[in-house]
Design a protein that fits this description.
It is a single chain. The protein is α+β, with helices and mostly antiparallel strands. The chain has a domain at about 120-295: OmpA-like domain (60s Ribosomal Protein L30, Chain: A, 2-Layer Sandwich), CATH 3.30.1330. Helices cover about 50% and strands about 15% of the residues. The chain has helices at about 1-45, 50-60, 100-145, 180-195, 220-240, 265-270, 285, 290-295, and strands at about 65-70, 75, 85-90, 155, 160-165, 200-205, 245-250, 270-280. The strands form two sheets. Strands 4-5-8-6-7 form a five-stranded mixed sheet. The longest helix is centred in the middle third of the chain and has 47 residues, at about 100-145. It is rod-shaped and about 135 Å long.
Length: about 300
């Protein structure tokens, strides 16, 4: 009997010990899980004060209002950080995004405005320059008319400046010669004083008709035209002290006729010396001179249509 009781008592003690062995690791596991949840909860919370301060700093840096966005479509209004009140954002009122197309359109508008202003500025400068060139023409034309030489020179305004075309017929230059006649000196003595008072350079360009030279001093019309232009320049320098560096000599021969060969005017009319007051304005301004001159009825091209 006593042996049987001892056996049952021993069995009971084994069962009690087994329950305790299972409960201890279970409790430890619950403790670990509880600690894990506490840590996760702690790290998931945002320091509201620091977050709002960061938002305010960024807003000031970008020049926007001091609001700090929270989770979802809400913001915290500055001044209510202690007791923030969520405000729903109106996403429909958000500004339209700036696209490359928008920037390109704005750039084109800016360029068009700049071109318009530049055109207006150039137009005003060209108007003033045309007035000045016409004043020079009036001085020359008036002085020639007083001497009875008004028909010896024709004027036109081109992109290059003011062109005074002097008819170089037998009264001006002897045939096949670069020796200037008395009438030639008379014309230059009217033009010289006015040209001497100008700041611009003056191009002196010689031209001949198409008739070939039959012997003589010059080999061809190229040499003859250049020699005639040189004769004009020499007189302007010696008589009116125009600085040589202001004068340009060119001989074109028969390559730039005013009249075609079959025109009765070709023999006399194509023999000439052009004196060009070379305009010094920018090309954008000079390019407007012929158009403005035409609007005023001022010749802008020679009889051959060249400007």
């Amino acid at each position: 009997m006593s042996g049987g009781r001892s056996h049952r008592g021993g069995h009971h003690e084994e069962e009690h010990g087994g329950h305790e062995a299972w409960a201890v690791p279970y409790g430890d596991m619950l403790t670990v899980l509880m600690a894990l949840f506490i840590v996760l909860f702690a790290i998931s919370q945002v320091d509201q004060d620091k977050y709002v301060e960061l938002a305010r700093g960024l807003a000031e840096g970008f020049g926007t209002s001091h609001t700090a966005p929270l989770a979802g479509n809400t913001t915290v209004i500055e001044g209510e950080i202690g007791n923030p009140q969520p405000v729903e954002l109106d996403t429909s009122a958000a500004p339209m995004p700036v696209t490359l197309t928008t920037l390109d359109d704005q750039l084109q508008q800016l360029q068009q405005e700049q071109r318009r202003k530049a055109t207006e500025k150039n137009l005003a400068a060209a108007e003033a320059e045309l007035d000045r060139l016409l004043d020079i023409q009036d001085q020359l034309q008036g002085a020639l008319s007083e001497k009875g030489l008004g028909d010896r020179v024709t004027f036109r305004v081109t992109e290059r400046g003011l062109v005074a075309a002097v008819v170089a017929d037998d009264v001006f230059f002897a045939s096949a010669s670069a020796s200037m006649q008395r009438t030639g000196y008379d014309v230059l003595d009217v033009l010289g004083p006015v040209l001497a008072g100008l700041p611009e350079a003056v191009a002196v360009e010689g031209h001949t008709n198409h008739l070939p030279l039959l012997g003589g001093r010059y080999r061809d019309n190229w040499e003859l035209s250049a020699a005639r232009a040189s004769t004009v320049v020499s007189h302007l320098v010696s008589a009116y002290h125009i600085a040589p560096q202001r004068l340009v000599v060119t001989g074109y021969g028969q390559t730039r006729p005013l009249y075609p060969q079959d025109d009765p005017k070709a023999i006399v009319g194509n023999r000439r010396v052009d004196l060009v007051v070379l305009d010094e304005k920018p090309l954008a301004v000079r390019a407007l001179l012929p158009q403005l001159a035409q609007a005023r009825g001022i010749p802008t091209a020679d009889p051959a249509g060249r400007s």
